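Subject: Protein entry, chain in single-letter code together with its fold tokens

Category: Structural biology, sequence-to-fold work with a learned token vocabulary.

Notation: Tokens come from a learned vocabulary of local backbone shapes, not from coordinates.

Start of record: The labelled sequence and token lines come straight after this line.
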Amino acid sequence: MKLLGAPQEIQAMQYSDMPKASHNYMSIDRLADTINRLDNMLFIEEGILNGMIATKVKINAKLKGLEGIKYQVVYKREIENKSFERIGEECNYSGRQARRIFESIAN
């Protein structure tokens, strides 16, 4: 049987033993420049997004006025992003006919 010994000396932890983190300090000028660049990027992205939303509204308005094969061709081309050849296969038309139908609506 092993006897319990007396407690050993308790040592205090020193600050030099603590883990060190890297500090990433940035000057106010550099921080302001970074914020301005991010603001400009957000402004550009917002413009692109607004353009895409406007295009979607136009496409939906045009789709509401179409029926039959015209609707199918425009929907598959603009919404599903399919080629005219693929659209023609799915609608039992040739790719050229699908393109003509699409172009007759676009003009």
